[in-house]
Each structure stands twice: as structure tokens, then as C-alpha cells.
């Protein structure tokens, strides 16, 4: 089990002009898989606000995994990957690759996502697109990984060999 925080990045969602579909879906799927949802928030597509929330949650130790939704596309306002990389200590490129490979099985537009996966301290941070279909597909990839990733980040683990 992992403690999961969910950050929705959306100008219109933060302004109350659009209902957040991705964040609740991430929370629902994480809970159904036996994980605990410890925090949720919506912020606008502002790099420093995104980074500040990621830093606060990771450095506060409340979450093993932070999953973002939104802000991973090609428009000038899509800055979630930049904010995530700004707080990163280490990249976890295999997760981003797995998300794109899985997404490409459903749509060629998955190749346009710029989401990243990183660690900060003992927290894994993963960017998912904002589209609920893409969120569900991304969670299919992430859910089997979350518990083990959280365990690995908490400290030394004996690996069989």
C-alpha cells in the first residue's frame, strides 16, 4: 500500500470554471487498489505554484507517491513537467516510457505527452495527462508499481539474486 497525493493542474479547474475529472478518477482508482489518498489539490498552470505544492507534499513526508494530472501537453501553458523537473532529485524514465508505450496502444496522440516521473526524497512524483481516458490508462500502468516503489523509497531493501 502507498500513501498517494493527487495534484490537478488546470487553470479552469482552479478557477472553478471546469469540473476536475482526472483528480477524482486517480483517487478512486488508487483507493480501489488498496492505497490511501492522503491529499488532493487543484492549482493553475503556474510553474511555481505546481513546484511549491510538489515540494511541500514531498518534503512534508505525507505521501509516498504524488500523481499529477494535467499540464503535460504542448501548449505554452502546459508546464507541469518543467515544475516537476525543477523539484526533482532523480528521474525515473522507465515509468514515463511505460506510460507512453501503453498510451500508444490506444491513440497516436500519446506520443505528444511530455509527462515525467521523478523522485524527491522518499517520494515518487509522476505526471499524467489531464484527459480522463489517458488518466485511466496511465493508472493501469502505475497501480501495480506504487506499493513496491514506495517500499523501495523508504529505505534499504534486500533484493534476491
Structure description:
- The protein has 6 helices and 6 strands, in the order βααβαβαβαββα.
- It is α/β, with parallel strands linked by helices.
- The protein has one domain: MoaB/Mog-like domain (Molybdenum Cofactor Biosythetic Enzyme, Chain A).
- α2 crosses α6, α3 packs across α4 and α5 runs antiparallel to α6.
- The protein starts with a strand and ends in a 7-residue tail after the last helix.
Q: Concise description?
A:
The chain has helices at residues 11-14, 22-32, 47-60, 80-87, 93-104, 132-154; strands at residues 3-9, 36-43, 65-69, 90-91, 117-120, 123-128.
Write the layout of secondary structure elements.
Elements: E1 3-9, H1 11-14, H2 22-32, E2 36-43, H3 47-60, E3 65-69, H4 80-87, E4 90-91, H5 93-104, E5 117-120, E6 123-128, H6 132-154
Parallel strand pairs: 1-2, 1-3, 3-6
Antiparallel strand pairs: 4-5, 5-6
Helix pairs in contact: 2-6, 3-4, 5-6
What keywords describe this structure?
161 residues; alpha/beta; Molybdenum Cofactor Biosythetic Enzyme, Chain A; 6-stranded mixed β-sheet; 20% strand; globular; MPT_Adenylyltrnsfr/MoaC-Rel
Reading side by side through the largest sheet, how are the strands ordered? 2-1-3-6-5-4
Q: What share of the residues does DSSP label as strand, in percent?
A: 15-25%
Tell me the name of the CATH class: Alpha Beta
What is the terminal-to-terminal distance?
Answer: 24 Å
The CATH topology turns out to be Molybdenum Cofactor Biosythetic Enzyme, Chain A
Structural class: alpha/beta
Question: Mind describing the biggest β-sheet?
Answer: 6 strands, mixed
Percent of residues in helical segments?
A: 40-55%
Number of strands: 6
Helix/strand order = EHHEHEHEHEEH
What overall form do the CA principal axes indicate? globular
Number of H- or I-type helical stretches = 6
CATH architecture: 3-Layer(aba) Sandwich
Gyration radius from CA atoms, angstroms: 15 Å
Count of domains: 1
Determine the mean pLDDT: 96
- In CATH, what is the homologous superfamily? MoaB/Mog-like domain
As residue ranges, the low-confidence spans are none
Amino acid at each position: 500500500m502507498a500513501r498517494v497525493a493527487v495534484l490537478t493542474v488546470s487553470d479552469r479547474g482552479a478557477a472553478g470554471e471546469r469540473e476536475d475529472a482526472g483528480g477524482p478518477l486517480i483517487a478512486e482508482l488508487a483507493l480501489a487498489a488498496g492505497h490511501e489518498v492522503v491529499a488532493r489539490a487543484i492549482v493553475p498552470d503556474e510553474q511555481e505554484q505546481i513546484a511549491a505544492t510538489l515540494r511541500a507534499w514531498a518534503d512534508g513526508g505525507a505521501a509516498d507517491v504524488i500523481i499529477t494530472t494535467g499540464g503535460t501537453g504542448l501548449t505554452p501553458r502546459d508546464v507541469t513537467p518543467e515544475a516537476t523537473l525543477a523539484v526533482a532529485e532523480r528521474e525515473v524514465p522507465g515509468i514515463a516510457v511505460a506510460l507512453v508505450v501503453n498510451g500508444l496502444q490506444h491513440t497516436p496522440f500519446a506520443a505528444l505527452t511530455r509527462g515525467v516521473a521523478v523522485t524527491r526524497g522518499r517520494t515518487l512524483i509522476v505526471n499524467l495527462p489531464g484527459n480522463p481516458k489517458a488518466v485511466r490508462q496511465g493508472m493501469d500502468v502505475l497501480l501495480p508499481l506504487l506499493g513496491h516503489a514506495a517500499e523501495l523509497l523508504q529505505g534499504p531493501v534486500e533484493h534476491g539474486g
